[in-house]
C-alpha cells in the first residue's frame, strides 16, 4: 500500500470514515495530519491499534484536549479496547495531571460510552478492601519497590517537619495504592502509558527516565517504549518526543 492507501485503511479501522480530502475549510491541513499519524506513524513499530489508542487516550487526557479525546475514545472502542481499559487509562492520569483535568476527561469519556449504550457505572476494578488504613501504603509499596526502590523516600528527607515522610508516602499511596492496584489494565500496560503521559507533560524528563526504567522492568521492550513515544508525537509534538528520547537514551539504545 502507498501512504494514501494506508491512511484510508487506518481511518476506516479506527473511525469508520474516509480520510480527509479537499472538502472543508482546512482540508490540506487535515491531509497532512492524517497522513503523518495514520499513514506513517501507525504503520511504524510493533504496537497494535488497541495499544496505540490507549496511548492516544492517555496523551489527550494529559493535554486536556477534550474534542480530540472524545473522537479517540470512540476510536478505542472501534479498535477493540474495552470500556474498562479506556477508563483505567484515564483514571491513572490523575496523580500526574491533577484531579480537575482528569474529571473533565472522565466526563468526555462517559459521554461517548453513553452514546454507545454502555451501561454506567462500569464494574468496579478496586482491589483495596478499606479495612486497614495501612493497606493503601503497603499494597502500593509492594508494587513500587520492585520497580523503583525507595529512592523517593531517601530523596526528600530534607523537607521540613512531617513533610519528609508525608510527601513520599502520598506518592506511594495515591499513585500505586489507589490506582496501580486496580484491575482492568496489567502492570506492563500501566507503566508504558505512564511513560507517554510524562512525556506529554513536558519538563518531566527526570520522571520519564525513571518510568522508562520501570516500564522495561515491567516487561516492555525497548522497541515498544520507543514505539509508544513515537506514536504519541503527533499529539504531544516533536520537541517533547525528542526530549523524552534524549532523557533516556542510555536505557533505549538498541542492543549491538
From TrEMBL:
InterPro entries the UniProt entry points to: 4CMD/NDH-1_regulator (IPR052512), AhpD-like (IPR029032), CMD-like (IPR003779)
Pfam families assigned: CMD (PF02627)
GO MF, one annotated term: peroxiredoxin activity
Domain of life: Bacteria
Domain Carboxymuconolactone decarboxylase-like: 29-107, 166-249
Protein name: Carboxymuconolactone decarboxylase family protein
Amino acid at each position: 500500500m502507498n501512504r494514501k492507501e494506508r491512511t484510508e485503511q487506518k481511518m476506516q479501522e479506527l473511525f469508520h470514515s474516509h480520510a480527509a480530502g479537499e472538502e472543508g475549510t482546512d482540508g490540506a491541513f487535515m491531509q497532512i495530519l492524517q497522513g503523518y499519524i495514520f499513514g506513517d506513524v501507525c504503520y511504524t513499530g510493533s504496537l497494535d491499534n488497541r495499544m496505540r489508542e490507549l496511548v492516544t487516550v492517555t496523551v489527550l487526557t494529559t493535554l486536556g484536549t477534550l474534542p480530540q479525546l472524545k473522537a479517540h475514545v470512540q476510536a478505542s472502542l472501534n479498535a477493540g479496547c474495552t470500556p474498562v481499559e479506556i477508563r483505567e487509562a484515564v483514571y491513572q492520569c490523575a496523580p500526574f495531571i491533577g484531579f480537575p483535568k482528569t474529571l473533565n476527561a472522565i466526563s468526555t469519556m462517559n459521554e461517548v460510552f453513553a452514546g454507545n449504550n454502555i451501561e454506567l457505572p462500569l464494574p468496579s476494578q478496586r482491589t483495596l478492601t478499606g479495612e486497614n488504613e495501612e493497606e493503601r501504603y503497603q499494597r502500593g509499596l509492594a508494587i513500587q519497590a520492585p520497580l523503583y526502590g525507595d529512592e523517593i523516600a531517601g530523596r526528600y528527607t530534607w523537607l521540613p517537619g512531617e513533610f519528609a515522610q508525608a510527601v513520599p508516602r502520598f506518592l506511594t499511596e495515591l499513585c500505586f495504592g489507589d490506582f496501580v492496584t486496580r484491575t482492568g489494565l496489567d502492570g506492563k500496560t500501566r507503566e508504558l502509558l505512564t511513560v507517554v503521559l510524562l512525556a506529554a507533560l513536558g519538563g518531566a524528563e527526570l520522571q520519564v527516565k525513571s518510568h522508562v526504567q520501570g516500564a522495561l522492568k515491567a516487561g516492555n521492550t525497548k522497541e515498544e517504549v520507543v514505539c509508544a513515544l513515537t506514536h504519541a508525537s503527533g499529539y504531544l509534538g516533536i520537541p517533547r518526543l525528542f526530549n523524552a528520547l534524549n532523557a533516556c537514551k542510555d536505557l533505549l539504545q538498541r542492543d549491538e
